[in-house]
Amino acid sequence: MANGQCEYHSPVDYDIVLAGNFGEPRPCHFHGGIDVKTDNQEGKKIYSIADGYVSRITVNKYGFGNAIYVSHPDGNTSVYCHLKRFADDYEAQFERTGWRDTLDFRFPPGKLPVKGGDLIAISGNTGHSTGPHLHLELHDTETWVMRDPMEKLGSFIADTVAPQAHSFMAIPQKGQGLFNGGFSKQTFGFGQPDTKKRSTTWTLSRQFTAWGRVGFALWADDYCEATYNHYGIRHTRLLVDGREVFRSDVDSIPVSCQPEVNQWGDYDHWRRTHIWYMKSYREPGLRLPILHTDLNRGIVNFTEERDYHLTYILRDYRGNESRYHFTVRGLPDSRVAATPRRSLLDDYRLWRQCLWPLHSFKNVSAASAAVPMVM
Ligand SMILES: [Zn+2]
After folding, report:
1. How far is the CA of 136 from the centre of ligand 1 (A)?
2. Average pLDDT of the residues in 227-242
3. Mean pLDDT lowest among 34-38, 256-260, 333-337
4. Backbone angles phi, psi at 82, to 5 degrees
5. Using an 8 Å Cβ cutoff, are 19 and 118 in contact?
6. 79 CA to middle of ligand 1, Å?
7. Which tens digit of pLDDT belongs to each residue from 339-351?
8. What protein residues have CB closer than 5 angstroms to ion ligand 1?
9. pLDDT mean over 221-233
10. Buried b vs exposed e over 162-191: b needs ≥16 C-beta within 10 Å?
């Protein structure tokens, strides 16, 4: 079943403009799909993005509101949410009794086949929605891992604007590092003008100092030309002297990792400012498979009296790219004993972090058995 090929179509019959993208950090979860604008109104025709069959229909006052699930032969399921109503064929499958309805129907393959481009629903503003739009998710049908719908729909969306970084945060590790002579975390703006270009390179002239182990975090947004909206960053790399110490590629997220956004991001800072700084290192215990680091978990160890050249490289799904350079001078300080640190225990922890995800992402919230099957 999961070996089939799929040709993908747009879910709407006009140019797609996004109000939100996949994986945007939000408190306690990542945004699980893309938000397709519907001209601030209900009533747009929504089409299946590929061949398959309607596998589930849910009606709820909360959450996704009216939602329809289409399972595709390539092993993905697309989910269309906050709908006003479903196409007539699907409305005929069940009876509504009132606005408080909480309904959940599963359909077997063969019952409600769909072709890519078939009308399946009318857009709306039902469930937990702050305005009319289409929230569209793409999941691995078997594991229910959330995938970036841009992988399939990217070619329908115009984007020639690179992501932009606003500022970085230096996070000296407790008792092990100093930044600009201080033990506490500090933020520094890049001061880049609002350029909205396809690619950009920016160098901070200010000099910083550090000693010992310091982590970094970044506040950045992605943009496109069609709207004032901003989006999460698909791809982030941190290089130190040209060597990659951290990389994140927000292409798929296991549902079980949703709460980990609060550890990858600086949740305390978000609570105070509603700004997300995403760390460029891995906190111990984080399983998020989209984070990749060197042996030091991405934490930079300043142990030599010299200049360290740091570069952030941000890229969106379409390959628009921006680079931010800044220099940090290693400055010895007797308050911190800065020595290269490697131990067997570190190696074991790293090995465990690398393997753990393989065993824990199956099963998550895919299918629960206690749902009525409509035959
Ligand atoms: Zn959404």
Report:
1. 7
2. 94
3. 333-337
4. 65, 30
5. no
6. 11
7. 766 666 766 766 6
8. 35, 135
9. 89
10. bbbbbbbbbbbbeebbbbbeeeebebeebe
Q: How far is the CA of 258 from the centre of ligand 1 (A)?
A: 15
Distance 347 CA to ligand 1 centre (A): 39
pLDDT tens digits, 132-165: 999 999 999 999 999 999 999 999 998 889 999 9
Distance 134 CA to ligand 1 centre (A): 7
Q: How many C-beta neighbours within 10 Å does residue 16 have?
A: 18
Q: How far is the CA of 232 from the centre of ligand 1 (A)?
A: 12
Instruction: Report residue 194's pLDDT band, with 50, 70 and 90 as the boundaries.
Output: confident
> Ligand 1 centroid vs 139 CA: distance in angstroms?
14
Kindly give the distance from the C-alpha atom of residue 253 to the centroid of ligand 1, in angstroms, as a whole number: 15
**19 CA distance to ligand 1 centroid (A)?**
8
* Cα–ligand 1 centroid distance for 29 (angstroms): 12
Provide the whole-model pTM: 0.88
φ, ψ for residue 165, nearest 5 deg: -95, 135
CA of 170 to the centre of ligand 1 (A): 31
For tokens 């729909």, the residue is: 153
Evaluate the CA torsion angle 60, 63, 68, 73 in order and state its sign: negative
| Closest listed residue to residue 9, CA positions, set 69, 52, 51, 49 | 49
Residue 57: Cβ within 10 Å count: 24
Length of the chain: 375
Q: How many CB atoms lie within 10 A of CB 9?
A: 19
